[in-house]
Amino acid sequence: MSDKPRKFKGGVHPSDSKALSASCAIQDAPLLDKYVVIMHQNIGAPPQLLVKKGDVVKKGQLLAKAGGFVSVPLHAPTSGTVSAIDKCPGPTGISVPAIHIDADGEDEWGSPFEPIANWQNCPAGELRQRVWDAGIVGMGGAGFPAHVKLSPPEGKEIDTLILNGAECEPYLTADHRLMLEQAEDVVLGAAILARILGLESAVIGIEENKPDAIAKLEEVAGKYHVRVQPLPVNYPQGAEKQLIYAITGREVPVGKLPMDVKCVVQNVASAVAVADAVVKGIPSIERVTTVTGRPVKTPGNWRFRIGTPIAKALELAGGITEQPAKLLLGGPMMGIAQSSLGVTVMKNTSGILLISSDEVSLYSSEPCIRCGRCVEVCPMSILPATISQAVENKRFDWAQELNVQACIECGSCSYVCPSHRPLNQHFKWAKVEIASKLRRRND
Amino acid sequence: MSEQESTPSIRLPDPARLVVSNSPHMRSGENISRIMFTVVAAMLPACAVGIWFFGLAAVWVLLACTVSCVVFEEGWNKLNKRPSTWKDGSAIITGILLGMNLNAGTPWWVCVIGAFLAIILAKQLFGGLGYNPFNPALVARVGLLIGLPELMTTWNPTHAMVSTLGAADAVSAATPLAMAPGKVEVLQMLIGNTKGCLGETSAIALLIGGAVLLIFKLIKWQVPVAFIGSVAVITGIMHAIDPTTYHSPVVHILSGGLLLGAFFMATDMVTSPMTRKGAIIFGLGCGIMTSVIRLWGSYPEGVSFSILFMNALTPLIDRMTVQKPFGYVAPEKGKVA
After folding, report:
1. Does pLDDT of B337 surpass 50?
2. Do B107 and B222 belong together in one domain?
3. Same domain, B206 and B300
4. Do the Cβ atoms of A369 and B269 come within 8 Å?
């Protein structure tokens, strides 16, 4: 493994706007009197509810248990009373079931997990179970249950653990601050994850635009055989497949998983959550989120309890100075636009971003002039322009032939398109159509 | 209860005014007009040299072509109740390119016919910008060449030629490619003091424009390099075999519409392949066709025909050069996709 990262083909360089919040130390958000914990926060099966209206819960108490292997439990963000099991606005605009908790203000722990101080001698299976019990998901945005990635099926050998600290999305600085302020925890989490996978070492991939975090991590990395790998700044450097390629030179085959090239990738925030769960016995009930954007009065990074309403998060940041055009969960390239302030912070909410009207793209799309820029920047080397035309003509079979499934929805093509075509949207549509066709065939 | 606690002075977004749309929520700010007007700027040096050498006649041709292209574009939009598109700059490019492809003495009505062929026949009938399979300016040039061969192969001499050769000799002087090999003055071709279309004579001005296009990444370098390179190789071989019959490759590169075609017309985004690999194939095809027509065809010039021919092959080249995605795995044989 060379120390020089490989450069993946394509990518774009949007202005990163990270300076708005990069120097703001993480603050603990004050306790609220009400939290709304969205039930289904992970990719995979929704968890099964264990509490009912009127139940008194303690901080860290199980609210719902995993609904299958690809599922994680949910824990109470504070102590209080379950005031309702009701709908709340979900991140995709559809109302979703949520557990409403009226806090009692005591913030009293229930019976948290037993800390595993001697984790170095703890069997890997027990550590993995702890990761699952703590409800840890991919906190970079995907929300994929962390323990599933740590459970390679029989015969799949893993030789590389990569921590994703690229944070290539513009505006977001939560991972940056976490790596800077809790470098020891990041490295500790990496070491625990490595132990679970039976590995001696781990690599932390981090974009070069965070030199302070790189220096801090390098100070402490040696303790657990963790290597810090600075990466060139190129969006989407933090996309799993591009990150694996940059660090190992391996290409994850289309439709396959990182473990098919012997790699496991976990987000740095997930690694900190793992360290907390193992060493301190704390389940996944909080996360660091960047609240930023030009309309935000005082952007910054906060440690929010899961279930914090977006409106409360924005209040902490001083509210707004102008009406934004968009409210996003996540970064500007892949984030999801919101139509309500009632959505709450979830385990994968890396950012709450307000976009002002002059920087948002409210263009109407024009015909493709075949300039080929989308082809140049596509990190998956597909032909966005051609696929988009296939989709416009509802030729999903053709889109499939052109490997639309390989698209990682990074949005680089839409970003550069001079005709402002809804390329990314076309691909999402095509994928849904192709998947439903497959389902129909299998039925 | 929580509402009461929130400080009233803190302003929050009004959800009713939030826009919901798909990611990405940031765009590079690039747009079609900016691309098109940069191309226009890149054409200006060659136009300026044309005006310098051919005088007001060149101005009238350029104006007649550009104005009538814009008028046809907007007339078509009005007729079909479509939004105005002339501001995207594509019709202006077509107009200027058409003018650059005409003799400085071309009558105004020929310019209007050319603009009609370019904008209506070659572009709008196919669906407008982005959907035209052939380069509109070239369709017009070739259409006029076939329909009005006399007019299209008579060239105004430059002012400089008139003053050195005298009016009669300047008018009867041949274009470089029609001259006998060895009698061509390369220096005059570099600066543009030679007979030909008003925008194609000055190699230096065209190269400056080409450099602008390359610097702003508006064209793929593979097209002009493959195009000019293959012409140089093929004509070079023939010149080495028989220098009395065939011009040297330098003359071939500097003469006729080769540089204009290679930098400004073969590189047209809409009508050339999208991938780099496709661009090389396209450029090679243009170069080979041009050389064959020039060396052995009945026309002295072959750039327009070869680019149009390769335009027709573009969809095929695009299909041939579909790149393998990152992490591509070949489908299993016999498996139905």
Report:
1. no
2. no
3. yes
4. yes
Structural domain boundaries enclosing B46: 32-152
What span, in angstroms and rounded, lies between the C-alpha atoms of B35 and A371?
Answer: 10
Please say whether the structural domain A1-29+108-362 has been given the CATH code 3.40.50.970. no
Interval A227-252: pLDDT, tens: 999 999 999 999 999 999 999 999 99
Contact A12 B22 (CB under 8 A): no
Which residues numbered 88-117 in A keep a CB inside 8 Å of some CB on B?
A: 93
Instruction: Give the span between the Cα atoms of B218 and B220, in whole angstroms.
Output: 7
Rounded Cα–Cα distance for residues A329 and A82 (Å) = 26
Tell me the average pLDDT across B100-122: 95
Specify whether the CB–CB gap between A30 and B6 falls below 8 A: no
Sequence spans of domains, chain A: 1-29+108-362, 373-442
Q: Helix, strand, or coil here: A49?
A: strand
Residue to substitute from A371, A417, A423, A441, interface B, most B β-carbons within 10 A = A371
> Using an 8 Å Cβ cutoff, are B214 and B263 in contact?
no
| Nearest beta carbon to residue A333 from set B18, B23, B129 | B23
DSSP 3-state assignment of B319?
A: helix
Give pTM, 2 decimals. 0.91
Cis peptide before B24 (omega within 30 of 0): yes
Is residue B132 domain-shared with residue B208, that is, in the same domain? no
| Residue B333 forms part of a structural domain | no
* Chain B residues touching A324 at Cβ < 8 A: 13, 18
* Residue B160 lies inside a defined structural domain of this protein: no
Is residue A84 less than 8 Å (CB to CB) from chain B? no
Which residues 25-54 of A are in CB contact (within 8 Å) with B? 32-34
Domain boundary among B128, B152, B176: B152
Q: Would you say residue B3 lies in a domain?
A: no
Residues 25-44 of B with CB under 8 A from A: 25-28, 30-32, 34-35
As for the ipTM of the complex, it is 0.88
